[in-house]
Every structure is written in structure tokens, then in C-alpha cells.
Design goal:
Elements lengths: L2 H23 L6 H8 L6 E2 L11 H8 L4 E5 L8 E5 L5 E3 L5 E3 L4 E2 L3 E4 L3 E2 L5 E2 L5 H12 L3 E5 L20 E3 L4 E3 L4
Parallel strand pairs: 1-2, 1-7, 7-10, 10-11
Antiparallel strand pairs: 2-3, 3-6, 4-5, 8-9, 11-12
Helix pairs in contact: 2-3
Length: about 190
Amino acid sequence: MTDLTAIKAEARKAAFARRKQAHEAAGPGAAGHLSQVLAGHRGVPLSGYMAIRTEIDPLPVMEEAAAHGPVGVPVIQGKGLPLKFSWWEPGCALKEGPFGAMIPEADDFLEPEILIVPLVAFDRNGGRLGYGGGFYDRTLELLRSKRPTLAIGFAYAAQEAENLPLEPTDQPLDMIVTESGVLSFSDH
């Protein structure tokens, strides 16, 4: 195990503990700021995610967005591969995907231009610490090579951290939305 791998593991452990506390304390309406941000992008292909464990839940915003345009959820294709995004609609039939996240039963893929990205920790520069598989980093790199792609980290404010152990391959977020507000990074 490299030093950076160990440092990232420790950073994840601490962040998971902070996220768990924030999740337990959160009330309804945590997605309000995200709804406001996305209101200016109605109809643009969007990817959300089906929350697992203590992730902040974007489902109310995904339901809102689905009334205006296509919404997808990430589907893991395999280790080392970018994500694909399966078309999701409120009430569609779901099945369990890798790591326990629910995905649509039918494979009907779309290419999002806006991604709501789950995370373990974030910093004030748009840095993101994920689960360690690199799926979103590979996916964002691929999508951004084709067209402008907006990556919005969605998290509890308590998931903010300083000095995240980041690597050159880590894709920056354009914005972070929490229950407390919005951080935007125009320099990416």
C-alpha cells in the first residue's frame, strides 16, 4: 500500500464518520439549493444517483428534472471503466446494481451534460474524495473531452475537509451544493 493510498483511506474513514453524523441530523429539504441550481438548466441531460448508506439524497431533484428532460443514473460497467448512465424516470422498474445502488431494469443509456456527483469529502477548491474506484474521474475526463460537462458535487456541509489527498487524475468539481449553500468554482 502506497503512502497516498493509506492517506486516502484515513481521509475516507474520517469523512464517512462526519457524513454519518450529518445524515442523521439532516431534515427534509436538504436538496433545496440543488433544485435552485438546476432550475437554470431545465431539459439538459442530467445524471443523478440513487443514494446508498448515508449519502445525501438527490431523488427529489431528479424527479423535478425528469419532468423537463432526460435523467440518468450511473451504471458501473466494470473495474477501470467509465460509467454509463441508464435512463431513469420516477416509478421506473429498478434492480440492484454493483455496490448496492439501484439502477433501472432496462438498459437505455444516455450521455449527461450535467452530473450530480456523490462524494465522501470535498474541499473549497472543488476537490473531491470519492470511494476510490476512480469511476467518476474516468467518466468526467471522457465526457469533458467531448463537450463542456458540469460536475456538481452534492454533499452535506460537514463533509468539507482541508488538505484532501488528491492526485493529478482526480477530476475537479465545478460546483458543490450542500444543505447550507452553493460553492462555485469558475476557474476549472
